[in-house]
Amino acid sequence: MRDVDEERAAVEDGLERLHRDVETLTGLLSQVLTESGGDALRLDVERVREAAAAFRDRPTEERAGALRDLVASFDLEHAAVVARAFTVQFHLVNLAEERHRVRVLRARGRRAEAVPEGIAEGVRRLRRTDGEPALRWVLDELTVTPVLTAHPTEARRRSVVDCLRRIAALLDRAEDPRATWSDHREVERRLLEEITTLWRTDHVRNRRPTPLDEVRSTMAVFDQTLFRLVPKIYRELDGAVRGGSTGGEPPVRAFLRWGSWVGADRDGNPTVTAEVTRAAAAIGSEHVLRGLEAATRRIAATLTASSRFTPASGELGGSLRRDEETFPEVAEALATRFPEQPHRRKLALAAERLRATRRREPGAYPDPEAYLGDLRLVQRSLEVAGASRLAFGELQDLVWQTETFGFHLASLEVRQHAEVHAAAVGRLAPAAAGDAAELDRFAGAGWPADARPGPEDAETLETFRAMADIQRGLGADACRRYIVSFTRTAADVATVHALARLALPDGGLELDVVPLLESRAELGRAARILDDLLELPFWRAWLEARDRRLEVMLGYSDSAKEAGFLAANVALYRAEEALAAWARARDVRLTLFHGRGGALGRGGGPTNRAILAQPPGSVAGRFKVTEQGEVVMARYGDPDIARRHLEQVTNAVLLASAPSGEAAAGAGERARFDPALDRLAATSERAYRSLVSRPGFVGFFSRITPLREIEELQVGSRPARRSAGDDLASLRAIPWVFAWTQTRVNLPGWFGLGTALEEAHRRPGGPDLLRAMHEEHAFFRSLIESAELGLVKADLPIARRYLDLGARPDLAREIRDELERTIEQVLAVTRQPELLAGRPVLRETVRLRNPWVDALSFLQLRYLGELRAGTLADDAAAWARRHVLLTVNGIAAGLQDTG
Predict the structure, then answer these.
(1) 315 vs 850 pLDDT, higher one
(2) How many CB atoms within 10 Å of residue 623?
(3) Helix axes of 368-384 and 314-326: crossing angle, nearest 10 degrees
(4) What angle do CA 862, 866, 872 make, to 5 degrees?
């Protein structure tokens, strides 16, 4: 009881501090608003906030009318200023919540006991339940690969993100117990300065970023967080495995691997070319080599052990002499200053070799393995001399960093649509198009002499040559994977191998072609597609050459847009089951690559819970996932939050891979729950398809959402549509989800679930069965938790006002009814009085920000109403469209959700 009381007190204290931070930041913003626009601006913002709070407290038509009239009383320019004030306020509130999370994490870290869902807890549980051999097997297989993408869901400009980071640093200074009264005064002055910068920065991009802009933005995550963080994750696992540091060689290998689509994902993005991909690889290499060089110099400066007490091995002495011959001037200076410090001199010369590698000068390392060889040589010499703690201290951190990042930082993964490859084959060898066996023969034996590439195929073939160039300069792992979007048959995979052979007839490219299964039908045929590949001689040989390691990617976004939230998730679960069984039966070491988006309608939500909900045997120590858009900064922008995220993911992979974890996840599920789960999916899909296939639905969707404006938003380099057209098929999943989020309907995160649960509830024994599934079936429980998050961000009083813009009362009524039905049915399953009842902090943050989001929603509704009515003159319409984009940014910040 005491622990419960202490936990409750800690939560209440945390919420109180969060409220205090919000009050401080919003108070400073009020001062900035007064300085900028006088009391009138501040009072107008306050009037809108108070009217929105009154509406939130009791959403009557009278109060809605008062808020609507107040917003309508502003001219367009002043309304935009008010909207900008709320947008800035949301950025500050989000920052306060982030700092709250950091405080909680730091408080947990100060305790001696293992942190819940942390690495130490995972190791302890695995060892206790499965024993040491099982732990060793999982550690040997353990590989966690986050893949950063440039999917256009980060609505904030880079200048805004940088400003917020500076404000966060000032808040940290304010909490320093050593800070004096003068320090606090200076922090307040600087906070006002930075909030003024945030206020006066244009939050709407004036141009679309280029792919290389996106590459450089991604580098900030590596430079500021990930490069320094990964050794801490390995130390955490090392300490958990060994039960404390002994100073000896750690038993933990580097298990984190980073991938990137930024500058390499050309699916529907014509601005990503072979030259862009080459440049992206060069930028990544420049950053990691600078990081390794700086770390090597820093550690060299601390490695001051004298040869009188720590003699160098003969092996190190010989290597040092060779380096001194390569860099005689530097070597002479080092020998003069540090004559009795051979280990220091060796590392300092290794830093010189890294510098030469970066500059492509004589003396460069040929590959990261050569550099790792030097680091391990120093380690061996120190260990033989009895200085194991020096050998495996910071020097081991540098080894881990090199093993994780190599000389490339993140492995570039090329992605292209299967239709692009099919079109190329259709031009080159029409008879072979779609013929997997013939294409497989081309991949192995070469193309016929009359297959002559034309200018239409130059870029496709140059992409393979770019991959080969990157591998020659940075190693095979720098760029070896080729993702085939919308893979439908074995021929789609064989085509890529064949085109690679055409581009590079003599080989020279290590290529891993990864099928991406995105549509409902292909998820259902996943194992059959792989069986068809096994029938191809070249592909079988390729699989053997890869030690029977295979990667298959599953797309969450388009399957959800096609079949709806519940049906898509069940289809993905079934595909994972089938693929895991296929791999076990054929002795294939399978990695499932999860193409999860940030929003719930695209597979978003807590990653660790999603891992634990995977089918038995589908993880097996290997987990790979995309990190998209705003999720990248949310998870990796702050070192403490990034560490917690990676710890939780590692914990989940350990537990999901343990034999007991797999048994628990699968015990009794198929016999008891599978038929009910399949019925739920089928019912949900019928309800969803009935809505989105209705005549006039596309026009209704375009009228009630800011879709047209979002398509103009300069968020990313990639267009919002794969092809020309106004149908849903051409629209990408991101703007589909983004637009629904803005309306506070959030339809992709729940629609169809309520109808399915209601139908199941009416069956004999239905309520008890649903509750048993929620308690015992990890996948179903995770699905309901995700739906709760989606539902709590939906808001019927606001949503109905967007729905009314569509002039389709039948569709609006159906959506409203399904929303109410879904909330009712989810609460019946969870047996809770309200959504998120078990997560008080999250529920409170949603409650705290709702009135402010409402204010922006009413401002957006004003603009949309005028634009959809077509009553504005051209210049006024242009103003209105730009201000819709401003409210889009603000609502995205307020809901912490885009696409």
Answers:
(1) 315
(2) 26
(3) 140
(4) 135
Residue type (1 letter), 59: P
Q: What pLDDT, on the 0 to 100 scale, is given for residue 130?
A: 92
**Using an 8 Å Cβ cutoff, are 598 and 897 in contact?**
yes
pLDDT at 512 over 50: yes
CB 126 within 8 A of CB 134: yes
Both structure tokens of 351: 């830093």
CA distances from 134 to 126, 128, 233, 512 (A): 8, 10, 21, 30
Q: What is the pTM of this model?
A: 0.89
Q: Which residues pair with 149 in a beta bridge?
A: 628
The 8-class DSSP code of residue 409 comes to S
Over residues 73-78, the mean pLDDT reads 85
pLDDT at position 151, please?
57
* Amino acid occupying residue 291: G
Per residue in 798-822, pLDDT (tens digit) is 999 999 999 999 999 999 999 999 9
Domain positions in the chain: 284-405, 411-605, 669-838
Phi and psi angles of residue 518, each rounded to the nearest 5 degrees, phi first: -120, -35
pLDDT at 597: 63
SS3 507: coil
Report, as residue numbers or ranges, the catalytic residues: 151, 561
Residues 230-259: tens digit of each pLDDT: 999 999 999 999 886 656 778 888 999 999
Residue 629: is its pLDDT beyond 80? no
Note the residue count of the chain: 899
Mean pLDDT over all residues of the chain?
88
145 beta partners? 624
Contact call for residues 190 and 163 (beta carbons, < 8 A): no
* Cβ 627 vs Cβ 222: under 8 Å: no
Q: How far is CA 284 from CA 256, 258, 351, 370, 641, in A?
A: 17, 12, 18, 19, 23
Helix/strand/coil for 153: coil
- State CA 88 to chain mean position distance: 24
Q: Do residues 87 and 893 lie in contact, with contact meaning Cβ atoms separated by under 8 Å?
A: yes
Mean pLDDT throughout 309-322?
A: 96
pLDDT at 584: 94
Residues 6+ apart with CB under 8 A from 462: 273, 274, 503
Token pair recorded at residue 173 = 């200074």
CATH class of the domain at 284-405: mainly alpha
Residues whose CB is less than 8 angstroms from the CB of residue 83 and which lie 6 or more positions away in sequence, other chains included: 856, 859, 860, 883, 886, 887, 890
Q: Which long-range contacts (CB under 8 A, 24 or more apart) does 199-203 make?
A: 199/29, 199/32, 199/33, 199/36, 199/84, 199/85, 199/88, 200/36, 201/157, 201/159, 201/160, 201/163, 202/157, 203/84, 203/87, 203/88, 203/156, 203/157, 203/160, 203/886, 203/889, 203/890
- What CA–CA distance (Å, rounded) separates 264 from 519? 23
Alpha-carbon distance 168 to 174, whole Å?
A: 10
